[in-house]
Amino acid sequence: MRILLPLAALALTLLAAPALAGTIEARGAWIRTPPPGAETAAGYATILNRGTLPDRLLGGRTAVASAVAPHQMLMQGGVMRMRPIAGGLLIAARSSVRLEPNADHLMLFGLKRPLRAGQHVRIVLRFAKAGAVPVDFVVMDTPPADPRPHMHM
Ligand SMILES: [Cu+2]
Protein backbone atom coordinates (compact mmCIF):
# COMPACT_ATOMS: atom_id res chain seq x y z
CA MET A 1 0.00 0.00 0.00
CA ARG A 2 2.90 2.37 0.67
CA ILE A 3 3.92 2.15 -2.98
CA LEU A 4 0.41 2.70 -4.26
CA LEU A 5 -0.15 5.97 -2.41
CA PRO A 6 2.36 8.06 -4.43
CA LEU A 7 0.92 6.56 -7.62
CA ALA A 8 -2.56 7.60 -6.57
CA ALA A 9 -1.28 11.11 -5.90
CA LEU A 10 0.33 11.20 -9.36
CA ALA A 11 -2.91 10.02 -10.98
CA LEU A 12 -4.82 12.82 -9.24
CA THR A 13 -2.27 15.37 -10.47
CA LEU A 14 -2.68 14.15 -14.05
CA LEU A 15 -6.46 14.28 -13.78
CA ALA A 16 -6.31 17.84 -12.43
CA ALA A 17 -4.16 19.14 -15.29
CA PRO A 18 -6.92 19.67 -17.91
CA ALA A 19 -9.07 21.54 -15.38
CA LEU A 20 -6.21 23.92 -14.60
CA ALA A 21 -5.67 24.60 -18.28
CA GLY A 22 -9.32 25.58 -18.66
CA THR A 23 -9.51 28.47 -16.20
CA ILE A 24 -10.15 30.92 -19.06
CA GLU A 25 -13.19 30.56 -21.30
CA ALA A 26 -14.65 32.83 -23.99
CA ARG A 27 -18.36 32.86 -24.79
CA GLY A 28 -20.46 34.45 -27.50
CA ALA A 29 -17.36 35.42 -29.51
CA TRP A 30 -18.12 37.39 -32.66
CA ILE A 31 -16.51 39.80 -35.11
CA ARG A 32 -18.51 42.61 -36.64
CA THR A 33 -18.57 42.22 -40.43
CA PRO A 34 -16.09 44.83 -41.64
CA PRO A 35 -17.00 47.02 -44.63
CA PRO A 36 -15.49 45.92 -47.97
CA GLY A 37 -11.83 46.90 -48.23
CA ALA A 38 -11.44 47.50 -44.49
CA GLU A 39 -8.01 46.84 -43.03
CA THR A 40 -9.25 46.42 -39.47
CA ALA A 41 -12.07 44.63 -37.67
CA ALA A 42 -13.30 44.44 -34.07
CA GLY A 43 -13.95 41.27 -32.09
CA TYR A 44 -16.14 40.85 -29.02
CA ALA A 45 -16.72 38.12 -26.43
CA THR A 46 -17.39 37.54 -22.79
CA ILE A 47 -14.22 36.25 -21.17
CA LEU A 48 -14.55 34.23 -17.98
CA ASN A 49 -11.76 33.64 -15.51
CA ARG A 50 -12.61 30.67 -13.30
CA GLY A 51 -9.20 30.73 -11.67
CA THR A 52 -8.27 32.01 -8.24
CA LEU A 53 -5.71 34.45 -9.69
CA PRO A 54 -6.24 37.48 -11.94
CA ASP A 55 -5.14 37.11 -15.55
CA ARG A 56 -4.51 39.46 -18.45
CA LEU A 57 -5.47 39.24 -22.10
CA LEU A 58 -2.34 40.33 -23.92
CA GLY A 59 -3.29 39.77 -27.56
CA GLY A 60 -3.72 36.95 -30.00
CA ARG A 61 -2.96 35.59 -33.42
CA THR A 62 -5.07 34.53 -36.35
CA ALA A 63 -4.64 33.56 -39.99
CA VAL A 64 -6.90 36.40 -41.18
CA ALA A 65 -5.04 39.37 -39.66
CA SER A 66 -1.45 40.39 -39.07
CA ALA A 67 -2.01 41.49 -35.45
CA VAL A 68 -4.60 41.20 -32.67
CA ALA A 69 -4.66 43.45 -29.59
CA PRO A 70 -7.07 44.42 -26.79
CA HIS A 71 -8.33 48.01 -27.16
CA GLN A 72 -10.26 50.40 -24.97
CA MET A 73 -12.51 53.35 -25.82
CA LEU A 74 -12.08 56.73 -24.20
CA MET A 75 -13.39 60.26 -24.64
CA GLN A 76 -10.78 62.71 -25.89
CA GLY A 77 -11.84 66.29 -26.62
CA GLY A 78 -15.47 65.20 -27.02
CA VAL A 79 -14.55 62.45 -29.48
CA MET A 80 -14.58 58.70 -28.78
CA ARG A 81 -11.17 57.27 -29.54
CA MET A 82 -9.61 53.87 -29.03
CA ARG A 83 -6.18 52.87 -27.92
CA PRO A 84 -4.27 49.74 -26.86
CA ILE A 85 -4.73 48.66 -23.24
CA ALA A 86 -1.32 49.04 -21.62
CA GLY A 87 -0.27 45.81 -19.92
CA GLY A 88 -3.25 43.91 -21.34
CA LEU A 89 -6.91 43.60 -20.37
CA LEU A 90 -7.30 42.60 -16.71
CA ILE A 91 -9.74 39.82 -15.86
CA ALA A 92 -10.09 39.52 -12.10
CA ALA A 93 -10.13 36.13 -10.37
CA ARG A 94 -13.52 34.36 -10.52
CA SER A 95 -14.87 37.11 -12.68
CA SER A 96 -15.73 37.95 -16.28
CA VAL A 97 -15.18 40.84 -18.68
CA ARG A 98 -17.51 41.61 -21.52
CA LEU A 99 -15.97 42.93 -24.73
CA GLU A 100 -18.72 44.78 -26.61
CA PRO A 101 -19.29 47.59 -29.10
CA ASN A 102 -18.30 51.06 -27.81
CA ALA A 103 -16.34 49.47 -24.96
CA ASP A 104 -13.29 47.25 -24.60
CA HIS A 105 -12.79 45.15 -27.71
CA LEU A 106 -10.31 43.02 -29.60
CA MET A 107 -8.77 44.84 -32.55
CA LEU A 108 -7.72 42.94 -35.67
CA PHE A 109 -5.14 44.79 -37.77
CA GLY A 110 -4.01 44.13 -41.32
CA LEU A 111 -6.89 41.97 -42.55
CA LYS A 112 -5.53 39.51 -45.08
CA ARG A 113 -8.88 38.70 -46.68
CA PRO A 114 -12.45 39.98 -46.61
CA LEU A 115 -14.62 38.68 -43.75
CA ARG A 116 -18.23 37.83 -44.53
CA ALA A 117 -21.17 37.26 -42.22
CA GLY A 118 -21.47 33.63 -41.17
CA GLN A 119 -17.77 32.84 -41.46
CA HIS A 120 -15.93 31.35 -38.50
CA VAL A 121 -12.57 32.82 -37.56
CA ARG A 122 -10.24 31.12 -35.13
CA ILE A 123 -8.24 33.47 -32.94
CA VAL A 124 -5.73 32.06 -30.48
CA LEU A 125 -5.94 34.48 -27.58
CA ARG A 126 -2.84 34.92 -25.47
CA PHE A 127 -3.13 35.35 -21.70
CA ALA A 128 -0.37 36.19 -19.22
CA LYS A 129 -1.11 33.14 -17.05
CA ALA A 130 -3.42 30.85 -19.03
CA GLY A 131 -1.25 31.10 -22.15
CA ALA A 132 -2.81 30.32 -25.54
CA VAL A 133 -6.60 29.92 -25.60
CA PRO A 134 -8.13 29.15 -29.04
CA VAL A 135 -11.52 30.79 -29.58
CA ASP A 136 -13.98 30.44 -32.46
CA PHE A 137 -15.34 33.86 -33.52
CA VAL A 138 -18.39 34.10 -35.78
CA VAL A 139 -18.54 37.00 -38.25
CA MET A 140 -21.88 38.79 -37.76
CA ASP A 141 -23.56 41.99 -38.94
CA THR A 142 -25.25 42.57 -35.58
CA PRO A 143 -24.47 41.45 -32.01
CA PRO A 144 -25.69 37.98 -30.98
CA ALA A 145 -28.99 38.00 -29.10
CA ASP A 146 -27.77 37.38 -25.56
CA PRO A 147 -24.14 36.44 -24.93
CA ARG A 148 -24.54 37.11 -21.20
CA PRO A 149 -22.88 34.22 -19.38
CA HIS A 150 -24.36 32.18 -16.59
CA MET A 151 -21.51 31.48 -14.25
CA HIS A 152 -21.44 28.39 -12.07
CA MET A 153 -18.55 28.41 -9.67
CU1 LIG B 1 -9.84 49.25 -31.63
How would you characterize the overall build of this protein?
The chain is mainly β. It has one domain (23-140): PCu(A)C copper chaperone (Immunoglobulin-like). The chain is 12% helix and 51% strand. It is built from one helix and ten strands; from the N terminus they run αββββββββββ. Strands 1-2-8-4-3-9-10 form a seven-stranded mixed beta barrel. The longest helix has 18 residues, at 4-21. The radius of gyration is 18 Å and the shape is globular. The two termini are 35 Å apart. Residues 42, 71, 82, 105, 107 line the site of copper (II) ion.
Compose a concise summary of this entry.
This protein is mainly beta and 153 residues long. It has one helix at 4-21, and strands at residues 24-32, 40-49, 55-62, 65-76, 79-84, 89-91, 95-99, 105-111, 120-127, 131-140.
Give the domain tally: 1
CATH-level-4 superfamily name: PCu(A)C copper chaperone
Characterize the quaternary organization of these chains.
Answer: single chain
**Sheet with most strands: strand arrangement:** 1-2-8-4-3-9-10
Tags for this entry?
binds copper (II) ion, 1 helix, 7-stranded mixed β-barrel, Immunoglobulin-like, mainly beta, about 10% helix, globular
Compile the SSE list and pairings.
Layout: H1 4-21, E1 24-32, E2 40-49, E3 55-62, E4 65-76, E5 79-84, E6 89-91, E7 95-99, E8 105-111, E9 120-127, E10 131-140
Parallel strand pairs: 1-10
Antiparallel strand pairs: 1-2, 2-7, 2-8, 3-4, 3-6, 3-9, 4-5, 4-8, 9-10
The structure holds copper (II) ion.
